[in-house]
Specification:
The chain is built from 3 helices and 4 strands. By secondary structure, it is α+β, with helices and mostly antiparallel strands. The chain has a single domain, classed as GMP Synthetase, Chain A, domain 3, CATH 3.30.300. Strands 1-2-3-4 form a 4-stranded mixed sheet, covered by helices on one side.
């Protein structure tokens, strides 16, 4: 994995995390990411997560993640590989 960012989507009960991941090659799978998350977070925090594989995470020149851009791409229906962790 080269880079990653996460943000919450939905409202109230439907809110869940979405992880945007830049893969290093094609050898990293959604299940490997889920295992990594489960080893570090509580099960309920990972239960509804989604994994979205992207080519690059948008950043500012100072290196901060542009979450607004990621959220906009998600709402537009980004043409990337999208896998559910559930």
């Amino acid at each position: 994995m080269l880079d990653a960012a996460a943000l919450g989507v939905g409202r109230d009960v439907d809110e869940h995390p979405v992880a945007f991941v830049v893969r290093k090659g094609k050898d990293i799978t959604e299940s490997q990411i889920k295992e990594h998350l489960l080893s570090r977070l509580s099960r309920y925090k990972v239960a509804k997560c989604e994994v979205v594989f992207v080519d690059a995470i948008p950043n500012t020149p100072s290196g901060k993640t542009l979450r607004k851009v990621l959220r906009a791409r998600l709402e537009e229906g980004v043409t990337v590989i999208r896998e559910s962790c559930a």
